[in-house]
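Why do we care about 3D structure at all? Because function follows from shape, and shape follows, mostly, from sequence. That is the central idea of this module. The next example makes it concrete: a single protein chain, its amino acid sequence, and then its structure expressed as tokens.
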Amino acid sequence: MHVLSDGPATQYRNRANCFLMSSIPYTWGFKRVTWNFSERSHGKGAPDGVGGVLKHKADMHVLGGSDLKTPMDLYNYLQKSSENVTVKWIEEEDISAMDEMLPPSVRPVTGISNRHQVLSFFPGKIFYRALSCFCKYPEICPCHKLSKLEFDHVSAAEVPYAQSSDCGSSAEMPNAQSSHPVPLVSPMPSQKN
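And the structure:
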């Protein structure tokens, strides 16, 4: 799973999000996660354009004399009128369920505010670096001040599909700076993509 977004600390570039990205995608069957943050005030790329088109569509609808009084009205209108865009409604319970997946205390990700790429190749472990790099993808390269962090709240045995991750040795970069010494998450057998 590849994510490209802007990088506000309150939404994306924070310890809770790093913890969740190192656990939840594996329950959905993903084997790798990369999250790349754009430079401050540089937008998100294509998602900004899609969001702009949807906002413009809603503005034109209202200017044409129709009302969109509630978020559900907006959702229903955009879902019906947007042929090439999938619009999803997220219930409050869905947000609460994600919040409940966080342990009471999540280890800090030292220096995350100055990093532009976070990678997770198996549950409970992230690598993060100053600049995005894919020079050896699907393996993790040691470029751009690579750091490593292991969350002690995630074990491979608890995450479906975790046994099929392929990052045992290739993800253990000898040049990665560990921000916190912690016990290693359960080792995984090797596999191809």
